[in-house]
Design goal:
The chain contains ten helices and ten strands. The protein is of the alpha/beta class. A hairpin with a 2-residue loop joins strand 4 and strand 5. The protein is globular, with a radius of gyration of 19 Å. Bound molecules: adenosine-5'-triphosphate (ATP). Adenosine-5'-triphosphate binds next to strand 2 and helix 1.
Length: 273
C-alpha cells in the first residue's frame, strides 16, 4: 500500500549567520513498506525524525529526494487534483486533541467538516453519518452537540479519530495519538484503534516514542534514530529480538534490570513483562 524509497530530508539549523546554514538530516535514506490492513509502528527518541516522516507521507512536507508510493502512484509526481484525490485516502490523528479541534465547534462540526469538503451529502445524511461515527468511536449520538471543553481528553481523542475516519481513508497516520492520555485511557484508545482497523479495513502508521504502545498495536516495528531506520522487527517477535543499540536503549528505559524495580508504565508494558 505504501512504500518509501530512499527518502531524504534535511532542515537548515537556525541562527542568524550570513553564511550557508548547517543542515540537520531528519530523514536519511529511508526505505519502508506498509502492507494493506496492517499497522507499521515507528518508534524512536525525541527528535529522531518520526513526525517529519509522517508529514512527508501526509504531503505536509516535501522530501529533498526519494519516492513515496501509495497504492501504485508516486505521490510526488501527481498533479494537484490527483494529489487532492489521493489526500483523502490518508488521514491523521495528532497528539494534541485540544489544539486539533476547534474549541468553538461542537463535535458535530468537527466530524462533519471533512464530509462537507469531500462528499456532497444532504443535511440528513450528514447528521446520520456523524452519529454513526460517534457510535463507532464509543461515544453517544447526543454528544454531537457538545463542545470540546465538555469532553475529557480521551473523549476528545475519540472525536479526532471519528473525524479522521469520516472519509473512510485507507491509511491513518497516528502521530503520538495516545501519548497525552493517562495509562488506562491509552489502553482503551489502543483497543478502539485495533477494533476500527478491523471494522473499517484501515492501515496505520503508528508513530510514538513509547515502544510498548507501538508493539501492542503494530504488526511491524521500525526503530528510528537520527533520521535513519536502524532496525525493523515483527511485533510478534519477543523483545529480545530487538538487537540494535538504539532499540536496546528504548527497551532499557521501560524495563529496569531488577523485577522489583519495574515501574509498569502502560497496560501494554504490563502484559509484556
Ligand atoms: N520545520 C522545521 N524546520 C527546522 N527543523 C525542524 C522542522 N521540523 C522539525 N525539525 C527538526 O527536525 C528534527 C526531527 O523532528 P521530528 O519532529 O520529526 O522528530 P520526532 O522524532 O517526531 O520528535 P518528537 O518525538 O519530539 O516529536 C528535530 O531536530 C526538529 O527540531
Amino acid at each position: 500500500m505504501l512504500e518509501l524509497k530512499h527518502v531524504h530530508k534535511s532542515y537548515a539549523l537556525g541562527g542568524s549567520s550570513l553564511f550557508r546554514k548547517p543542515m540537520v538530516k531528519v530523514a536519511d535514506d529511508i526505505c519502508l513498506t506498509l502492507e494493506q490492513g496492517t499497522c507499521l509502528g515507528l518508534v524512536g527518541e525525541s527528535g529522531s525524525g518520526k513526525s517529519t516522516l509522517g508529514k512527508m507521507i501526509l504531503g505536509l512536507e516535501k522530501p529533498d529526494a526519494g519516492e513515496i508510493w501509495f497504492e501504485g502512484s508516486n505521490m510526488l509526481a501527481l498533479s494537484k487534483s490527483e494529489r487532492m484525490r489521493m489526500r483523502r485516502q490518508i488521514q491523521t490523528v495528532f497528539q494534541d486533541c485540544y489544539s486539533s479541534l476547534n474549541p468553538r465547534w461542537p463535535a458535530y462540526e468537527s466530524i462533519r467538516e471533512p464530509l462537507a469538503n469531500f462528499e456532497k451529502l444532504g443535511a440528513g445524511e450528514e447528521k446520520r453519518a456523524v452519529q454513526e461515527l460517534l457510535v463507532a468511536v464509543g461515544l453517544q449520538p447526543e454528544d454531537m452537540t457538545k463542545y470540546p471543553h465538555q469532553f475529557s481528553g480521551g473523549q476528545l481523542q475519540r472525536i479526532s479519530i471519528a473525524r479522521a475516519i469520516a472519509l473512510k481513508p485507507k491509511l491513518v497516520v497516528l502521530d503520538e495519538a495516545v501519548s497525552s492520555l493517562d495509562v488506562l485511557i491509552q489502553h482503551q484508545i489502543l483497543q478502539l484503534l485495533a477494533e476500527l482497523k478491523r471494522q473499517f479495513k484501515l492501515s496505520y502508521l503508528f508513530i510514538s516514542h513509547d515502544l510498548m504502545a507501538v508493539r501492542s498495536i503494530s504488526d511491524q516495528v521500525a526503530v528510528m534514530s537520527s533520521g535513519r531506520i536502524v532496525e525493523t522487527v515483527s511485533a510478534k517477535e519477543p523483545l529480545s529480538s530487538m538487537k540494535h543499540p538504539v532499540s536496546r536503549q528504548l527497551l532499557a528505559s521501560i524495563l529496569p534490570t531488577h523485577p522489583r524495580e519495574r515501574r509498569v508504565s502502560s497496560p501494554a508494558a504490563f502484559s509484556a513483562v
